[in-house]
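Try it yourself: sequence plus iron/sulfur cluster, in.
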Amino acid sequence: MTKILKKPAVFFDTFQRKPDDNKQTTHYCPGCGHGILSKIIAEAIDELNIQDSTILVGPVGCGVFVYYYFNVAAVSSAHGRASAVATGVSRANPNGVTIAYQGDGDLAAIGTSNAIHAANRGENMIVFFVNNNVYGMTGGQLAPTSIVGQKTTTSPYGRSLRNDGPPLRMSEIIATLEAPVLVARMAVNSPKNVRNARKLIRRGLEAQVNKKGYVFLEVLSQCPTNWRKTPVDACKWIDEEVTPIFPIGVFKDTIDQAEPQPRDLSRPDFSEVIESLGLKAEEPCPAEDRPLPYPVVRLKSAGFGGQGVLSLGTILASAVMKKGLEVTWLPSYGPEMRGGVANCSVVISKEPISSPIVDQPNILIAMNKPSMQRFAPLVPKDGLILYNSSMIDTIPASLAAPVIPVPAADIAQKAGNVKAANVVILGVLLAKTGLLSFEEMSVSLQETFTNPKLCEINQRALQLGFDAAN
Ligand code: SF4
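Structure, out:
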């Protein structure tokens, strides 16, 4: 009887990453090994009925979008940090099944230390290490796993033993450690290898269900795009060129002898820790019953790097924290710093805050034009937009929220330094929302700026901003 190939139930019905007319396919290139591996992992999750307890930690690299495909709990991690993030996930969820999915640039270059230490600690997790001998997502640069002679965009004459050293064999390295219970290398380039991979993946996941400890599965995966080969030739290349350097096989398997090693979730008593360090615990600050302009204040402060948008957030966050309110501060750096918008999110509430992320701010402070263009349309009609009219001459049309121009840089100049424009706008914010009183913020500024001259300028800026709003 012909077996009908079905999409594993753990995959989402449609993959939201793709445009509307093409939500059934993944973002992977035709012939890529990632898709095959994803399917085998998904099938094993289905078979073991662990969808509800699985937590997947994604990497940076071609595998970055795994969360678009697997309908399980998922966390994204910074480049190379999946094993570290998975450590936290695994320890915080001792009954879950933690999967880290990483490529060779991610795990064997920037993340080597994270990966090796997680393995050495024997964390309860399974790590899929996708080895395609190249940095895939960024255009095919030399990876630690590129084979000698392999031409890449950064090794046009081929990998040189003398310049680059031999390829890094992660499975062999990790198999020398005491803690891992299963270390194996497999491939997804042929039906026989896929069958073998399926067995190992199931065994590794079962070990996670039984809390047997750390499992490392390296997967030789074809990257036709960056190898500049057809999918068929890419599969052949693994057999002919890659497996002689990276032999397929099981390097260590002690699952049957390993005892389950559940992790203890108990936490130390905080006051005992403080006492043992010889520190004096601060009295918890009782929350004052003060009105807030919104039940949960979601503030976005945005502008160019150097305009003090992040420090505006920290000044405000520390001031409200001293009043016993719950608060989070989350900066956003990265590519946005290169000529675009740096921003921070501040969430303030009387109740514990579930997420520090602000997608839809109810207060926006826009210090430059790109931040106004980007965030102002997100503010709802009961929100508030304050913008630095010294730098922003036009604002987006049809904004829902009231908009207040503040010539913050000009006012700051009068206060003694244009860099205090952020504090000017903070003064306007307090006057318009009553979030804190002028006196409360003034005390907080004195604690923030220990340099008397700077403190004086910022106090003046706060006063001028406060007065300008009234
Ligand atoms: S670049 Fe290579 S590894 Fe990345 S999706 Fe395409 S084929 Fe796969």
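One thing you can check immediately is this: The chain is about 35% helix and 15% strand.
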